[in-house]
Amino acid sequence: MFNTTNPFEIFDFQKMLSAAKMPNLDVNSEGLINAQKKTMEAIAGAYKASFDGVSAYTKKQVEILNAAISTAKEATSEIAKGNPQESVSKSLDLVKKAIVEAQANAAELAKINEKTAKEAFEILNARFLDSISEIKAVVAEKKSATASASVKN
User: Fold this and answer.
1) Residue 24 domain flag
2) Which residue in 62, 63, 67, 52 sits closest to 119, CA to CA?
3) Which of 12, 17, 50, 104 is deepest in the core (most CB within 10 A)?
4) Number of folded domains in the chain?
5) 3-state SS string over the chain?
6) Are 46 and 116 spatial neighbours (Cβ–Cβ below 8 Å)?
7) CA of 80: how far to CAs of 16, 42, 68, in Å?
8) In this structure, is residue 89 part of a structural domain?
9) pLDDT attached to residue 98
């Protein structure tokens, strides 16, 4: 009977990994080291794109807040000046204007987020695709080196 508290006891992972017959690679090879350097550069680039996006998002939020405070000051002074009927009309106009501005601001913030995510994804995706080709080349190089060594013997 299987131990139900640990589902991983069912499998013998060492046997599974040894059956996979992964090629032995020299992790200190120049190709793999260069690939890892490029990967770290891509990660740094993605972080920079994310940081720039967060900065732009924060800057836009501050602009929105400052504009809202300014609009609120103007609105209260305008409403206080007129008669009650005009004040109600001005209040409704200001509410409508605030809703339209809030929708535009939300759309702009969403665009900033989308742009940031897209840039970071594109950087990492391009690097991932390149790294597959680089690792494939290193494996092929190791295979040809092994074949050449066995031919000489």
Assistant:
1) no
2) 52
3) 50
4) 1
5) CCCCCCHHHHCCHHHHHHHHCCCCCCCCCHHHHHHHHHHHHHHHHHHHHHHHHHHHHHHHHHHHHHHHHHHHHHHHHHHHHCCHHHHHHHHHHHHHHHHHHHHHHHHHHHHHHHHHHHHHHHHHHHHHHHHHHHHHHHHHHHHHHHHHHHHHC
6) no
7) 79, 57, 18
8) yes
9) 85
Tokens of 136: 């494939």
10 domain residue, yes or no: no
Whole domain around residue 75: which residue ranges? 46-134
Which tens digit of pLDDT belongs to each residue from 37-84? 999 999 999 999 999 999 999 999 999 999 888 888 887 777 777 677
**CA-CA distance, 91 to 96, in Å (whole number)?**
9
Biggest CA pair distance of the chain: 104
Looking at this protein, which amino acid is placed at residue 84? P
Which position has the token pair 């009977």?
1
Residue 105 lies in a domain: yes
pLDDT for 119-140, tens place per residue?
999 999 999 999 989 888 888 8
Is 35 within 8 Å of 138 (Cβ atoms)? yes
